[in-house]
Amino acid sequence: MSRHHLDWNEPALRDRMQAALRVTEDEPPATLTPRAAQGARTRAPRQGARPWRSWAGLTALASVSAVWLAMPRLSQPNPDALPIRSGLDNTRTRTAPGTGPQRVAQGVKRRAPAAPSASLTGAAPISAATIALWQQQQARDFDGAARLLEQAGQVEPAYQLYSSSLEVAPSLEATMGVARTLRRMDEAAIATRAPEVEAPDSNSSSG
Amino acid sequence: MCERRAYPNAMDEQALINQVLSGDERAFEQLTRLHERQLFALSLQILQNRQDAEDVCVETFIRAFQHLRELRPQPSLAPWLRRTATNLCLSALRRRKTHREDLMPEVTVAIDYSDPAHEVSQRDDARYLRLCMEQMSPAERTMLTLRYVEDKSLEEVAELLGRPRSLLKVQLHRARKRLERLYTQLLSTPRTEVAARSEFLIASTHPTPEPKTL
Predict the structure, then answer these.
(1) Tally of structural domains, chain A
(2) B139 pLDDT exceeds 70?
(3) Out of A86, B19, B80, B132, which could bridge B24 as a Cys pair, Cβ 3.0 to 4.6 Å?
C-alpha cells in the first residue's frame, strides 16, 4: 500500500477527495422517471398553474392583504390621539379633548369591534375565510390559504388574484379590485351581525 | 477530472415544455429523461446514497412540473433544476445529520496538532476523508463536494448555492481548514474506533463498496 504525505492545498485536496468520494456509478435508476411522472400526476394543480406558488402570486397576495388590512383602519379613530398629557404641568393627569359625553361616545366608538376582529368572531364564512387567508399568509402557508379560499367558495377573488398574478407584476388596478371585493365581503358579514357595544366603564370617565 | 456532459438541446426542451403544458404526459417523461442523468449524478455526489439521490431527483422534477409555466421563459431548465436539487440535497443532509447524531458512535480523543506531516495510506486517507465529511455541516459538505469532487468552478458553486462568489471563497477556506482539523483529530483516534465509525457509515449510507478490513 502506497503511503503519501498529506497535502492540503487545493489541487491535492481535489485529487484526494475525488479518490475518496467520487461515485463512478451515476447511472440513474430506472424507477426515477416513472416515479417523477406518477408524482407529477398526483400533485398536479387542479386548474392549471397555481399562482400562489409563484413570486408574482405571492406579491399579489401580500399586496391585497396589506391594502385590505389598511382600509378599515382609515375610518377608525386613532387610539393614540386620545390620551393627551397636559402641556405645562408635569403631573400624570390625562385629559382628552371634548366634554364628558363626547368622551364617552368616543370611548364607545373606540371599543366597538373593528372589522378584522368582527370577522374573526363572526359566523359569516366569507369573512372568516378572509381572515384565515391572512393568517395563512403570515404563516407562509400559501397552499393552505388557497384551499381556504376554495373551501369558502371564494372563486371570484381567487380568480381575480389568479388573473392578476399571471403577469410578472400584478397591476394596481387588479390589486385594488381584489381589495375592494374583500372589503365588501367583510362589510356584508358585519352588516348581518347585531352591533356589539360595550357599556362605558365607570372608571374611564373619572380617569 | 470529472466527465462533462452536454446539456439537452434547448430547442427540444422548449418543444417538450410546450407539449407538457398542453397536457401531454409522455412529454413530461421525455423531459425528465433529458435531465435525469446530470441531476442524479449531482445528487449522488452530494448525498453519497442512491436512494436519497433518487428521492431528491423525483421531488425536483415534480416541482419543475408544478412551476413549468413560470419557468418556460428561461433558456434552459437545467440551472433551475440543479439549484433546486442542490437545495433539496442540503435539506436531506440536514435531516440525515439530525437522525444520525444520536446513533453515531461517540469518539473522544486528545487532539494532537504537533505532527501535521502525517503519512497515511491512500485507502486510509479515503476512509478518513469520508468520515470527516460526515462530520461537516450539510452546507460545508455540499460546498466541498461541489468544488472538489464535482470539480465545479467557484462561479458555478456560487450560483448553485445562491451565494456571492467572495463569500463562498471565504466559506470554502474555512471549510477546508475545518476538514483538516477534523482529519488531524481522526488520525489521533484509535484505529478500532475509526473502523467502527467507518462500518457505521457504510451501513447507514450504502455508498460505493469499500473493503471491510483496515
Answers:
(1) 1
(2) yes
(3) B19
